[in-house]
Design goal:
Strand content: 35-45%
Number of strands: 36
Distance between the termini: 45 Å
Number of domains: 3
Number of helices: 3
Structural class: mainly beta
Helix content: under 10%
Length: 604
């Protein structure tokens, strides 16, 4: 065992060196889907979770018992695709009902409840409120694994069930249930792009932070690996217990995602392959606004890197935070509605044309009977009222149409729920300018290397000579990692690729030195030359002909200019850059000819 461990360490180090010297430059393609609240509210009762865990070939089952029919419930399934290019399907049956099939399209997936990121790590959400019942429930999952028409790996990480259940004998529970699929990864684990995505976070608001409240946080992680540290912070404080095995971990490290469910706070837990579900008592840390941060690792030795190889790695190669559940129990409270409105978004607001006012209405409290009124106003005058039934999830979109005259306007949205616990946040507004159609134009600034002042030139870091076939082998390794990348067992793919490189090494011929990769920032200036504010759109960045990144832009005012700092990770030297504003044509634009800029730029 020890001999293998040392062989693995040296082989991984050698492979890493080959990758570092290969003059291939690219950056990220797809970093993951941010965690967002899918359900929230308040119930006299509890939020229950159940699951069947551990990567295995389907079919798999999850059997559990509920005290009564849930008021809201969700089934999540984790599926390993193999790569983001492969397609297939999964099929779910609840309580022996008619199986429901969901197609899985990898990088081309557009289903709003299919969260796929990285190399084809799927976290698939299914609303099952009407299918579950009080008493025993059984869920069965199968996939297209082994089917002639399917190429996905098709093994399942597990089944995870969340059910909100009323119970008169329980205290009032306020809850937030978030879903997504972040892909936290280090260099070399992002396809052909040596990029990093070290952290992600989500903020949950309006918690009743009183001395009598108790609170729990549950998190689900996919592609977790024992022996590679990772962290979860709640309001800036580490959760879980520090590791005790200093032969495997650096001092002070934590390993929340260690393929062992339920052990993060000192309990024995149970083994699981490549998935972790952990629950933490966060009552003493609870605030009205709470921020949860996931970290794939930490640079504990201060060398500027989060190492993932060697005898004491500092972080995960990659890990996927997929679900967060925060519950706050208040024995002294009575359930009541508590509506709030997010800042409204106005789309298509041009003089003389019909615009759409969109509002997200949230209910942090109990779901009332009947309907609620959502009132839309412009400059203090109501322009429409929409009556809606409150969503069981506590989160819903409401919109109306309006035609605005040229000029500056204040658009407001108010929800009238009645009997509210806190009516102070029932209204939100935004200001906007309405005029001629927007006209976006873009310009690319000079690349700035991390740690080097803009305009200054830094000598590129030189690495050891890179053999020609080593470069080829490095590319082969990238392809191997993309094709064979295991769901959580990073070592296996690295060892296979390493054997290929080592086998080729006697034939290698050194052609010359190659520059190392560095962090850069590209300032992209976007100007709106039109007479109307423009709403949210995406800025797409290409590096040497390959799509490098997509940056979300919240919007730009009429006649305004904004500079977006785009991070890139590539080699020094000349590269071709192209940026495109609103490449998908989501917004109306007076002149799309100036929405793109392209040219050669020297990276210092």
């Amino acid at each position: 065992m020890n001999i293998f461990k040392h062989i693995r360490t040296w082989l991984c180090a050698f492979i890493a060196l080959v990758l570092m010297t290969a003059p291939v430059s690219a950056i990220y393609d797809f970093e993951g889907i941010p965690l967002q609240t899918a359900a929230q509210g308040e119930v006299r009762g509890e939020v229950l979770t159940f699951g069947t865990y551990g990567l295995t070939a389907p079919p798999i089952k999850c059997t559990f018992s509920l005290p009564s029919k849930p008021v809201w419930a969700r089934i999540y399934t984790g599926v390993w695709g193999g790569t983001e290019r492969y397609t297939g399907w999964e099929e779910l049956s609840v309580n022996n009902g008619v199986p429901v099939r969901r197609d899985l399209f990898g990088k081309d997936d557009r289903h709003e409840e299919t969260f796929v990121s990285g190399y084809g790590v799927y976290w698939v959400a299914h609303d099952c409120t009407d299918q579950l019942r009080g008493g025993t429930n059984t869920i069965t999952l199968t996939t297209s694994r082994g089917q002639a028409e399917s190429r996905i790996d098709g093994r399942s990480y597990g089944i995870f069930v969340v059910a909100v259940v009323e119970d008169d004998g329980k205290p009032v529970t306020r809850y937030w249930i978030a879903e997504g699929n972040e892909d936290l990864h280090g260099e070399g684990w992002s396809g052909t792009n040596p990029t990093r995505h070290d952290t992600c976070e989500i903020t949950l608001e309006k918690a009743p932070a009183t001395g009598q409240a108790t609170a729990d946080l549950t998190a689900v992680l996919l592609a977790s690996t024992k022996g590679q540290p990772d962290y979860i912070l709640f309001n800036g404080e580490d959760l879980g217990s520090p590791v005790t095995d200093l032969s495997l971990y650096p001092e002070g490290a934590r390993d929340i995602g260690n393929e062992h469910i339920g052990d993060a706070t000192g309990s024995a837990g149970t083994d699981s392959r490549y998935i972790d579900v952990e629950t933490f008592d966060v009552g003493r840390l609870l605030k009205e606004t709470n921020t949860i941060v996931f970290e794939r690792g930490r640079d504990l030795d201060g060398d500027g890197e989060i190492t993932t190889i060697g005898s004491q790695p500092e972080g995960e190669d990659y890990i996927h935070p997929c679900s967060v559940i925060l519950t706050v129990q208040r024995p002294d409270a009575s359930p009541a509605p508590d509506f709030a409105v997010d800042t409204p978004v106005v789309a298509g607001a041009y003089a003389g044309e019909e615009a759409t006012i969109q509002a997200t209405v949230r209910n942090y409290g109990a779901r009332p009977d009947g309907t609620i009124g959502v009132v839309f106003s412009v400059d203090g005058v109501a322009v429409g009222t929409v009556e809606v039934e409150p969503a069981r999830s506590g989160v819903q979109q409401v919109e109306t149409g309006v035609t605005l005259a040229e000029g500056r306007h204040t658009v407001s949205v108010r929800v009238d729920g009645g009997g509210e616990a806190d009516p102070t946040d029932n209204e939100a507004s935004t200001d906007l300018t309405v005029g001629t159609i927007p006209d976006l134009s873009v310009a690319i600034g000079a690349p700035v290397r991390s740690g080097v002042a803009a305009g200054a030139q830094a000598a590129p870091t030189q690495q050891s000579p890179a053999p020609l076939l080593a470069q080829f082998a490095g590319l082969c390794l990238a392809a191997l990692l993309a094709a064979l990348r295991p769901p959580g067992g990073k070592t296996a793919a690295v060892l296979v690729a390493g054997v290929v490189i080592v086998g080729l090494s006697p034939l290698m011929v050194p052609p010359g030195a190659a520059a190392g990769f560095s962090d850069y920032t590209i300032p992209v200036t976007i100007t709106n030359g039109g007479g109307s504010d423009v709403g949210a759109f995406d800025l797409t960045i290409y590096l040497d002909g390959d799509k490098a990144a997509v940056k979300h832009v919240d919007g730009i005012g009429a006649g305004a200019t904004a500079t977006i700092e785009v991070p890139l990770y590539t080699t020094p030297g000349k590269h071709r850059l192209k940026v495109v504003a609103d490449e998908g044509g989501a917004i109306k634009d007076a002149n799309r000819g100036n929405n793109a800029a392209e040219g050669d730029h020297v990276f210092p």
